[in-house]
Amino acid sequence: MPSTLNPSRFTLADSTPARCLVIVPAYNESGAIASVVTGLHEHLPQVDIVVIDDGSVDRTHQHVPAYATVIRLPFNLGIGAAMQTGYKYAEYYSYDVAVQVDGDGQHPPAEVARLIDYLLENDCDLVVGSRFKENINYQQAPLRMLAIQLMRRWIQLLTGRRFSDCTSGFRVANRKVIDCYAHWYPSDYPEPEVLVLLTNEKMRIEEVQVHMEQRNTGQTSIPFFRGIFYVIKVVIAVLLDKMRDPWPHRKH
Amino acid sequence: MIRTLVLFSFGILLVGLSVQSLRKLRLQERYVILFAITGIPFLAMSYWPDGILWLSTQMNMEKPTLMIFILGAFTILLLLKLFSIISVQQRQITTLAQMVGILNQKLEPKNSQTPTPPGSTHAPTQSPTESHD
Cα–Cα distance between A92 and A84 in angstroms, integer? Predict the structure, then answer.
């Protein structure tokens, strides 16, 4: 369960302390999860951390330090459903801000506070930690870069907005977005899709340049050959997203 | 004769399998009715092989093969219905699994030793078992 021991240093527009939750989805990340959670706790002792163990078979949950909450899903649901579990938890406990941080150590804990500050100070609905906003040299496989470029252009065509890093999973959301995600969240490769869906909802999305680490342990969620399928699927999915309304409750 | 035998066997197989599935609780009544109704035309055709020709004539179809097209369209509609049922149920299973994870976390001893829950100032906004899907 969440903690209220440490007062948050983050404040909302009405000067009340913002309750923040870091959501860390993890699937077979026993090698990295302890350092990720420890790093988050050291940099942000005032925020709660929930690790979503998405049916790992390598006892990932046993490597999570005691100050973080672990939700163990009964079987592997996939990244979208695992992430949505964290948002459901955030909605259930009325958190003001939710942060997505990958369990593989790619998202540096030192950058989280900056993203939260940016969200609260600029009254954004979603802030995306971007690897490419300021053209900083970030090592990526050429094919992966090509796929990101293609999706970037496609999303720009559909929404009229340019997102420099539409696949980044390093994100901070406010309560409005938490509520949306808890009700519905794409299942397979959610990052590009939610950008389109939230733009449809006229949410305020901003990008902030962050430094990300290269993956050191575990396995990538998108292997090379599945990458081709990934691009095709996302291209079709975001097109369909232009036609659907996954959060009808917001209109009532 | 062979055509009659094949049509009769297929019709009996459809009706028999659907009834058997109902008895073993593997198929809901609505699907049993659907498959039983699908099997009846085959039984009728085995008794009256020229029935398809008669039906085609009645429907002003110049070629009886158009009936096969209609059958294919019916099958595709059936598949669409079944996939939509699977999709809804998959989402419902996901929601259930998420709720199991959240509720388990509340029950596990390790988590009951962690710092104070938010209950005093931030009560849960809804039941954790409430589904959004």
Answer: 12
CA distance A190 to A81: 10
Task: Compute, in degrees rounded to 10, the torsion defined by CA atoms A205, A207, A213, A219.
Answer: 30
Residue owning tokens 């090698």: A31
What is the average pLDDT across A7-30?
A: 87
Going by C-alpha positions, the residue among A140, A143, A133, A2 that lies closest to residue A71 is A2
Q: Domain of residue A118: give its range.
A: 20-251
Residues on chain B touching A18 (C-beta within 8 angstroms): none
Give chain A's domain count: 1
**What ipTM is given for this predicted complex?**
0.75
| Nearest CA distance, B88 vs chain A (angstrom) | 13
**Residue A49: strand pairing partners:** A22
* Interior/surface letters A234-250, b for 16+ CB within 10 angstroms, e for the rest: bbebbeebeeeebbeee
B128 band by pLDDT with thresholds 50, 70 and 90: very low
Residue A12 has, within 13 A of its CA and on its CB side, a CA count of 12
In a domain, A58, yes or no: yes
Q: Residue A26's beta-bridge partner residues? A: A53
Cβ atoms of residues A196 and A242 within 8 Å: yes
Q: What CATH number should be reported for the domain holding residue A188?
A: 3.90.550.10
Per-residue confidence at B132, pLDDT binned at 50, 70, 90? very low
Cα angle A162-A212-A54, degrees, rounded to a multiple of 5: 95
A12 falls within a domain = no
Residues B37 and B51: their CA atoms lie apart, in Å, by 17
Question: Which two three-digit tokens encode residue A42?
Answer: 């050291």
Residues A109, A49 contacting (CB under 8 angstroms): no
pLDDT of A216 reads 55
Q: How long, in residues, is chain B?
A: 133
In a domain, A5, yes or no: no
Residues 6+ apart with CB under 8 A from A214: A106, A139
Residue B30: pLDDT band with limits 50, 70, 90: confident
Lowest mean pLDDT among A51-65, A131-145, A209-223: A209-223
- Output the pTM of the full model: 0.79
Considering only the beta carbons, identify the residue of B98, B118, B124 that sits closest to A85. Answer: B98
Tell me which residue in B101, B113, B123 faces A72 most closely, judged by beta carbons.
B101
Is the CB of A92 less than 8 angstroms away from the CB of B116? no
